[in-house]
Design goal:
By secondary structure, the chain is mainly alpha-helical. It contains seven helices and no strands.
Length: about 170
């Protein structure tokens, strides 16, 4: 069952990446509300499948309890970054304004950073060896999303290059 979940996860990441490419190329589909809703559903399925991978991983790591809890702390930090960044973005959807306050005053992409941290932390907590070993694949997708988004923001906002110099990630 693990490999079914990992296949679903990979398909979800691929669909999300295709959507990012369409958005970067300003394709009309990227502005279509039905397609955007579908992508949100795909993201939900993606994350459900990823968590299922952690719980169904056939190879469990033999690691000390303190390292497992360190993984849980990483996961919680990643989740906190995701929630905090999502909250800060509320009300800015569809507006042509660069968000540079709050968490965004220190980290350009706290949501993506949160994903990366939890992609490493949770498999450590659940002792999921194959899922942890697959982390570079998922992280590579996220880095690609980040690169496309930052290229788009550089075109959209003159001040973005200066903002990049003052922030991390």
């Amino acid at each position: 069952m693990y490999f079914v979940w990992s296949g679903i996860c990979f398909i979800g990441y691929t669909i999300r990446t295709a959507f990012n490419v369409l958005a970067y190329k300003k394709h009309p589909w990227a502005e279509n509300k039905k397609i955007m809703t579908l992508v949100l559903i795909v993201m939900g399925i993606l994350w459900f499948s990823w968590f299922s991978m952690c719980f169904k991983d056939p190879i469990r790591m033999n690691i000390p309890v303190w390292i497992r809890y360190l993984g849980l702390i990483f996961f919680l930090i990643g989740f906190f970054l995701f929630v905090l960044s999502h909250q800060k973005m509320r009300g800015f959807e569809g507006k042509s304004r660069l968000v540079t306050s709050g968490i965004y005053s220190k980290i350009r992409n706290p949501m993506y950073l949160g994903f990366i941290i939890w992609i490493v932390g949770f498999p450590v907590f659940t002792r999921s060896f194959i899922t942890l070993a697959s982390s570079p694949v998922w992280i590579a997708f996220i880095f690609f999303w980040k690169v496309l988004e930052e290229k788009d923001l550089e075109k959209k906002f003159r001040e973005y290059k200066e903002y990049k110099k003052k922030t991390w990630f």
